[in-house]
Amino acid sequence: MRLLFYPTIKGSSKMKKTALRASGLVILLAMAAGCATTGLDEVKATADRAAADAAAAASAAEAARASADRAGQAAAAAQRTADQALSAATEAQDCCEANRESMERMFQKSMSK
């Protein structure tokens, strides 16, 4: 028993197969495009996070460089102060030696009289 709503004409069957294949291909392409878009969005988000991380790292490196510069300047100032203290200590030692020698000569003079 044949249904009247489904006629069996050879040309119509071939056309249905072609239409079915074309619609399957369209569905497959639509799904692939949807997956590619989702994948592309994930890649873009990962790239954006990586760029933000790189910017944060560059900012931290710049802050560390500035801190190192300040530490270097403080160390140079401390070295200058230490050099001045050494110079003053050397002058004081020389003066002390000169005073000792002078006192020694005075003592020798007083003992020889």
Overall description:
There is one protein chain. This protein is mostly helical and 113 residues long. 91% of the residues lie in helices and 0% in strands. It is built from one helix and no strands.
Summarize the structure.
The chain has 113 residues and is mainly alpha-helical. Helices cover 91% and strands 0% of the residues.
Distinctive features:
113 residues, rod-shaped, mainly alpha, 1 helix
List the helices and strands and how they pair.
Elements: H1 10-112
What percent of residues are in strands? under 5%
Provide mean pLDDT, rounded: 83
List the uncertain runs.
1-7
How would you classify the helix and strand content by structural class? mainly alpha
Helix content: over 70%
Q: What is the H-and-E element order?
A: H
Number of helices: 1
- Radius of gyration (CA) equals 48 Å
Biggest pleated-sheet summary: none
Give the number of DSSP strands: 0
**What is the first-to-last residue Cα distance?**
159 Å
Broad shape = rod-shaped
